[in-house]
């Protein structure tokens, strides 16, 4: 129960007592590994999972499948396409993690294809439905999918069981983000920012919301915290950072951003943005 509520440290304390009495429990050892994944990282979780493989009989098929599935998750999707498809009808989370793998590979259409016929029943499934529809809608300019995503996010974020959880608040922030109601986005992101201080995707969205509400100084600081080269190469990121530089009276830095780009339609759009914003701010 504590794990489901995102109280991973409390879950660990309860598990420690249980494992003293039942050290060979497959469910308990697996849950301990999952707690380590949430609290620390994949390597720490994998070390705990080794204890499960040591105590389980090779004939215990479900435990073997569980270990294979969780190793994919703990290793950030390694061997996902080989391991997860055969487990879709065995472990409920296998389909969800396969969809997440496709999203991380930027294969939005394949993620959608694997999830379009699933009727969500859990908060995680509703959230993933929202993410997939939002990604597809933004990638292909399909407003119907954007609206579907808004509805899924609002269902989770507005539910009594999820409204005060971190995922619930992320959902409400995502819903308002898609509606371009950035003051409301900031209410929810500010309430959970301490949990995501160094998380690039969170800071990317947080920075955009700050900039969209005119808090350019804070937005610039948040954007510059981002480490991901993939995010930093994204045109949306470059456009917002250039705008922050100009609004913060640093047009030279915006110009240097442009000079680093290869010639393309996106770099021309960035040049136009810089020119228009510089004109607006009287930075001739």
Can you offer a commentary on this structure?
The protein is mainly alpha-helical and 284 residues long. It has 17 helices and no strands. The chain has helices spanning 8-21, 26-39, 42-55, 61-74, 80-83, 93-104, 108-115, 123-140, 143-157, 166-178, 182-192, 200-212, 216-225, 229-232, 235-247, 251-259, 265-280. It is elongated, with a radius of gyration of 22 Å. The model has no long low-confidence stretch (mean pLDDT 91).
Give the termini distance in whole angstroms.
60 Å
Structural class: mainly alpha
Helix count, DSSP H or I runs of 4 or more residues = 17
Q: Portion of residues in helices?
A: over 70%
Structural topology:
Blueprint: H1 8-21, H2 26-39, H3 42-55, H4 61-74, H5 80-83, H6 93-104, H7 108-115, H8 123-140, H9 143-157, H10 166-178, H11 182-192, H12 200-212, H13 216-225, H14 229-232, H15 235-247, H16 251-259, H17 265-280
Helix pairs in contact: 1-2, 2-3, 2-4, 3-4, 6-7, 6-8, 7-8, 8-9, 9-10, 10-11, 11-12, 12-13, 12-15, 13-15, 15-16, 15-17, 16-17
List keywords for this structure.
284 residues, mainly alpha, 17 helices
Summarize, please:
With 284 residues, the chain is mostly helical.
């Amino acid at each position: 129960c504590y794990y489901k509520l995102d109280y991973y440290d409390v879950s660990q304390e309860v598990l420690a007592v249980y494992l003293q009495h039942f050290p060979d429990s497959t469910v308990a050892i697996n849950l301990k590994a999952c707690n380590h994944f949430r609290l620390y990282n994949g390597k720490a979780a994998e070390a705990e999972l080794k204890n499960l493989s040591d105590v389980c009989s090779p004939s215990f098929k479900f435990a073997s499948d569980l270990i294979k599935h969780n190793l994919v998750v703990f290793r950030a999707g390694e061997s996902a396409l080989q391991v997860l498809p055969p487990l879709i009808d065995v472990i409920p989370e296998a389909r969800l993690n396969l969809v997440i793998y496709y999203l991380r590979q930027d294969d939005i259409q394949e993620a959608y294809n694997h999830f379009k016929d699933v009727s969500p029943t859990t908060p995680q499934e509703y959230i993933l439905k929202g993410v997939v529809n939002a990604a597809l809608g933004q990638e292909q300019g399909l407003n119907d999918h954007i609206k579907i995503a808004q509805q899924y996010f609002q269902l989770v974020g507005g539910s009594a069981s999820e409204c005060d959880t971190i995922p619930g608040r992320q959902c409400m922030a995502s819903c308002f983000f898609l509606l371009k109601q950035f003051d409301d986005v900031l209410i929810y992101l500010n309430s959970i920012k301490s949990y995501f201080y160094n998380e690039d995707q969170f800071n990317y969205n947080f920075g955009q919301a700050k900039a969209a509400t005119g808090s350019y100084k804070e937005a610039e600081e948040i954007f510059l915290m981002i480490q991901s080269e993939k995010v930093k190469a994204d045109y949306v990121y470059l456009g917002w950072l250039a705008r922050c530089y100009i609004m913060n009276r640093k047009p030279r830095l915006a110009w240097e951003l442009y000079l680093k780009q290869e010639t393309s339609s996106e770099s021309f759009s960035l040049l136009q943005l810089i020119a228009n914003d510089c004109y607006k701010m009287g930075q001739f």
